[in-house]
Request: fold
Amino acid sequence: MDSSNLKCGISESISEPTGPVPAPCNIAHDAEFCCRFTHRLRFTGDVFAAGNETLSNILNEATSDCSNVAIFIDANVARTRTNQANKINDYFKKYLPENSPKIHVVPGGEQIKNQQQNFKQILDAIEQSHLCRKSFVIAIGGGAVLDAVGFAASITHRGLRLIRIATTTLSQADSAMAVKNGINAFGKKNYMGVFSTPWAIINDEATLKTLAMPHWLAGFSEAIKVALLKDPLLFEYIYRNCGGIRARNLDVSVPVIRRSARLHFDHITLNGDPFETEDARPLDFGHWSAHKLEQMSGFEISHGQAVAIGIAIDATYANFMGWLGDADHRRILECLDGTGFRLYHRSMQHANTLLGGLDEFQEHLGGRLTIPSISRIGHAFDIFEIDTNQMLAAISYLERFNKWGNHNESTST
Ligand SMILES: NC(=O)c1ccc[n+]([C@@H]2O[C@H](COP(=O)([O-])OP(=O)(O)OC[C@H]3O[C@@H](n4cnc5c(N)ncnc54)[C@H](O)[C@@H]3O)[C@@H](O)[C@H]2O)c1
Ligand SMILES: [Zn+2]
Reply:
């Protein structure tokens, strides 16, 4: 036995003291530990249709003696899907008769993350549902509803089981795979939130048809982003099919969302840093400016549209720095433009304010500024400082690109 440990009063076992009381001393005892999580992802269409057992299988697999369910549904999903509440009730009567969950309709879009009274209402509804830690919160909606409801679920009883049913291209291609939940506060995106792994993610592909055009497009910027970082074949596919995506051809578009979902899912399960403890944010290409642009536009532009501009800025900067060749740079801008994204927003006139997004990005991350860039399509590397003049030149280049393309700023999203 280690006698120095025993002296300080910490050891593998304890025995009757044989000598004087140990003198006070500083004790340090460090040990690493790991926790296992299962990330469950399902792709389906019309999750509450009679005959669709995707959800009931997930709920039934979770053996527990207490499994109340509360459902929160994005108001725009409830509005655009006929008889959604009846369908959900019928589904539970058929497959899970012991549960008759209360359905709460919540505001869709960024307002649910911006207005704290919305968040409080979710917490109140969860409290009134008397959920225990083995109960389920089912969030149905776009990324904003999934983020806010997920945050409320993860801080109640220190974590309820969350099932995310994703209904937008962006949530299906990216955000629902993540282990992040949160709301905006103090005028900052995602300022309050937690890392917490959902019990399951279900991409309901039948919901996509009712998305408004900007929200239809939004997920494809995240798909282009992850393709540029990791998957040149995916980029080629999107580049060749950007017209079909823009025309909302599901046969062409759904494979892109599925592949993007898989790449984001694999990033969480295989990358080794799901809770982002390291400085690098390997999937955040284009995001330092995207988050700032969302704020600067008063959330007039969606996250997906802002990411498209952010990708264009970071790709142009990589080109100006000599890292990314002209041909790849041109194809990236053509792909974003051809898919239907604007690559300029009037708030970019305030380029110096936009550059403030770098500091905010670093403050959010902690540690050293670390931003992903690309040296060619599908090949990422990290950069740690920014040449301000080249970045300002990249932003101004996009203003000229916008004019060459005859884009009309007044119609931008
Ligand atoms: N947690 C993460 O890791 C992560 C990652 C990326 C983005 N996000 C967040 O996701 C949010 C953006 O999500 P989003 O792009 O899904 O947009 P969104 O949630 O803002 O939804 C866009 C609009 O579409 C409506 N809607 C949702 N589903 C619909 C449907 N099927 N039919 C018709 N309308 C529908 C919503 O009510 C809303 O008005 C942002 O807040 C962003 O910060 C989170
Ligand atoms: Zn994003």
About this structure: The longest strand covers residues 188-195. The chain has 16 helices and ten strands.
